[in-house]
Amino acid sequence: MLNLLRSEWYKLLRNRAFWLLLSVLFVSAAAFVLLNYFDDPNDGGALTGKDGLDMLTTAMGGNNYIIKIGLSVLAGFYISSEYATGTIKRAVASGYGRAKYITAKMIVFIFGSMLTVLVFPAVNAVLGTMLFGLGEWPGISESAFLLKSFALTLVLSAAFAAVTGAIATLLTDSGKTIGFAFVFYFFADGIYVMAGKHLPFVETLYEHSIFNLINHYADPYMRASRFSESLYVSLFVAIAFTAIAVAVFRRKEIK
Amino acid sequence: MNEFVLRTHQLTKQYKNQTALDRVDVSIRQGTIYGFIGQNGAGKSTLMKLVTGLAFPTSGTVELFRATGGSELVRARRRMGVSIESPALYPQLTATENLEAHRLQQGIPGRDAVKRTLELVGLSGTGRKKAKNFSLGMKQRLALGVALLGSPEFLILDEPTNGLDPMGVVEMRDLLTKLNREMGITILISSHILSELHLLATHYGIIHKGKLLEQLTSRELQEKCRQFIHIKVDCPERAAAAIERELATTAFEVTNDGVIRLFDHLNRPAAVSSMLVGEGLALEQFMPMGEDLESYFTTRIGGGGHA
User: Fold this and answer.
1) Which among A11, A90, A98 has the least Cβ separation from residue B88?
2) Bridge partners, B287 (sequence order)
3) Contacts of residue A227, Cβ cutoff 8 Å, sequence gap at least 6
4) What is the pLDDT of residues B105-147, one digit of tens each?
5) ipTM for this prediction
6) Nearest chain B residue to A94, by CA
């Protein structure tokens, strides 16, 4: 298993899509902070970032899209591309069980996704704090908020990465993976809400799903119960969808 | 007698209404080069996919290094190197990086293994060039390199000479022969170039429409490939009548393009040619010939086929 993880990590570090995503996110985060810094609201500016915590909260809001869209692209180019290049055949015939191989791939993909998703809020928080100072918010411990924010970013990105990874394993084609994941994430909230009107349990399901939790994860006044729910639901989803990916891959014939 | 590296027992693969492989019993002994011959869609790649675990059999079993199923069979696959269909490479990685990714996966100690393999397949000078910019021949060699990394005992190569120039084909043949003779690697190879396979394989398996028609050694093939005198004259009908009448034999055939293949009187070519000239026929071509693998294969599958 360790060999598989090392090999997957080696490949991820040489994946162009991974580095492109990291670079784009880093540059856009830095640009966003600098825009806030130079855009003076007293002089007609529209950007209102005034301290590091403020920059972090705003970045977490935007990160919602990075988690959904960015990870779909990464899954397309890291997981599905193995089918297009045929390298998946080599991996399956390599003498490791299919379950081991895909578990290693999912673990590295999830870890890579967590790193990717962390870039935008982390750069915003660090650079924002350097330029504006960390800031003080009434009734909130700054260090606890920082810790909670990064913890939620990591677990939610792990959950979404696992769902996207399972989609990539099922569809096996980069284009289909990216396209389907885009559409699925774009309409997921709407579908849940619509179905919830007729089926009350769907509404409850949505309330506790990662699709809803991600809409509130940047709330600085989040209750402790909501925070712990976000943690364990995300972890459960990450594990469950990794297991789904394993189950799908074990039965899949490689063409 | 060497033990079997691979045996399949009544191996069958069905896709919806189509039987891709029908109760196939293949046996490959250690140290042999097994040439797998069949037309497109005959079942060659399907068998390779079942052996390598890419697809699952509908019925029957695969026995690899005596392992017949479950985790034993999965582990047995560590002893083989594989290149199926197109060369499976990471296009964004260099040759070294492609091999390194595989080295890490297989847990092969020492980076020297990568360097040695690059030298073995003649790609040590490719530097930072990415695999996507390689010629098809270079890709084939790199795919072979990946398959060889980790010193496999059994190589499965599907069309490894595809895209190679004539020199590349010769080099590939020499390399495979060397791997087989010097390192004792057993090889299962399919190729469309039957003349090339003829120079390489020690054993053959002929597959047609999912059924294994025959397995034979190169010596048995030699014996089965019929010798004949190839005759082309201005009037094949008259020549055929003369052969039947004057040489008292019916062991000949007239092909569609008017060539007569005489399977008798092989040790009396001068007498045959004199007789034909004496009959007033103009001899255009006259030479002793033998069937090769290609013609044997064509005959075996019922004519008209291309491997």
Assistant:
1) A90
2) B230
3) A148, A152
4) 988 888 888 999 999 888 888 889 999 998 888 888 899 899 9
5) 0.81
6) B78
Distance CA A132, CA A191 (A): 41
CB distance A82 to A91 below 8 Å: yes
Cβ distance B102 to A90 less than 8 Å, yes or no, reads yes
* Residue among A7, A85, A92 whose CB faces B54 most closely: A92
Q: Does A6 touch chain B (CB under 8 A)?
A: yes
Nearest CA in chain A to B91: A85
Mutation target vs B (from A80, A94, A108, A249; most B CBs, 10 A cutoff)? A94
Q: What region, left, alpha or beta, does residue B195 occupy, with left being phi > 0 and alpha being psi -120 to 50 degrees?
A: alpha
Chain A stretch 42-101, residues whose beta carbon is closer than 8 A to a beta carbon of chain B: 85-98
Token pair 């640009």 is found at: A31
Q: Is B57 left (phi over 0), alpha (psi -120 to 50) or beta?
A: beta
Query: If you compute the radius of gyration of chain B from its CA atoms, what whole number of angstroms results?
Result: 24
From B167, B81, B89, B156, select the one nearest B129 (Cα to Cα).
B89
Question: A4–B105: do the CB atoms touch at under 8 Å?
Answer: yes
- What are A73-106's pLDDT values in tens digits? 887 788 888 888 888 888 888 888 899 999 999 9
Q: What is the 3-state secondary structure (H, E, C) of chain B?
A: CCCEEEEEEEEEEEECCEEEEEEECCEEECCCEEEEECCCCCCHHHHHHHHHCCCCCCEEEEEECCECCHHHHHHHHHHEEEECCCCCCCCCCEHHHHHHHHHHHHCCCCCHHHHHHHHHCCCCCCCCCEHHHCCHHHHHHHHHHHHHCCCCCEEEEECCCCCCCHHHHHHHHHHHHHHHHHHCCEEEEECCCHHHHHHHCCEEEEEECCEEEEEEEHHHHHHHCCEEEEEEECCHHHHHHHHHHHCCCCCEEECCCCEEEECCCCCCHHHHHHHHHHCCCCEEEEEEEECCHHHHHHHHCCCCCCC
Q: Are A60 and A226 in contact (CB under 8 A)?
A: no
- Residue A95's pLDDT is 85
